[in-house]
What does this fold into?
Amino acid sequence: MKQKAIYFRASPELASRVKEQAAKKGVSASAAVAELVEVGLEFVDKQGTIEDLKKSLEQERHARSIAEGEVQRLRREKQQIQEETGRNLRMLQDSYNGLLGHLRVTDLAVCPSCRQILSAYDVIIQRRCSQCSIAVSLGSVADPQRPGPLIRDLLAVVGGIAVFAGIVNALSNRDSA
Ligand SMILES: [Zn+2]
It folds into this structure.
């Protein structure tokens, strides 16, 4: 391989360090300098790549910290929603249970079969006489020609109760899912 000579001035300290290095490696000072220059150049070349790498790592770290923050935020939001849903559900269940309790103590009609007094709960929710188990409905126990005021009111809320029960059921299922 054809070689070219490069001359440069160096401080006495640098010159003696080059000689030390050459002696350690058992090569000539010229060979030691050539090797060091080569290593140095390679290092300078790679420096740019290392800077780029550092920068992209930094960006990646930054993006990750933002994403983690977002995950934390969404997690907190989800928990808040779950807590709120739980509270609403308990409230709905409480009022639903209250409504059922109210229907249980409201005497509504008399069983056409066994003459047992039927509560609103028997007629609207169970749709069965609690004593003889005959199927009953508002239509079968109420006189359609002369519906009493209570029956009229109850007829108006029967649809509402069905929807209400549906909502409570849907929420219960979603909450336990
Ligand atoms: Zn009965």
In short: Residues 69 and 75 are 10 Å apart (CA to CA). The mean pLDDT is 82. The pocket of zinc ion is lined by residues 111, 113-114, 116, 129, 131-132, 134 (CB under 6 Å). DSSP finds five helices and two strands in the chain.
